[in-house]
Design brief:
Length: 126
């Protein structure tokens, strides 16, 4: 069983940047994709970005493309999400999760991911 722990959230002004971390403990995630999702109060959890652990293929939601960058460090069992040019509408709790199969091809459905972390809050002020 893998456990994911997110960190790096905080309060930032519009236009600012944050770097989120997702550290995996327990079973390695080397053969699986890791996704980032976010959820604002009263809204459904939505896909933000994903990276295939071993192949470095990346996927982004249209709303963050060009502003957010997902990357990973296999040696540290860590996936990063760099958030640049933040907007107030980016305010949400951000979660990472592991795709359940080893054949990830860009799915954005939260139900296909598991081992969710506890989340880290990102708040962007205008």
């Amino acid at each position: 069983q893998v456990q994911l722990v997110e960190s790096g959230g905080g309060l930032v002004q519009a236009g600012g940047s944050l770097k989120l971390l997702c550290v995996a403990f327990g079973r390695t995630c080397r053969s699986y994709a890791v996704g980032w999702f976010r959820q604002a109060p009263g809204q459904e959890r939505e896909f933000v970005a994903a990276i295939h652990w071993s192949e470095s293929r990346t996927y982004y939601a249209d709303s963050v493309k060009g502003r957010f960058t997902v990357s990973r460090d296999n040696a540290k069992n860590t996936v990063y999400l760099q958030l640049n040019s933040l907007k107030p509408e980016d305010t949400a709790a951000y979660y990472c999760a592991v795709h359940r199969s080893g054949s990830y091809s860009g799915s954005r459905h939260p139900a296909e991911f598991g081992s969710w972390g506890q989340g880290t809050q990102v708040t962007v002020s205008s």
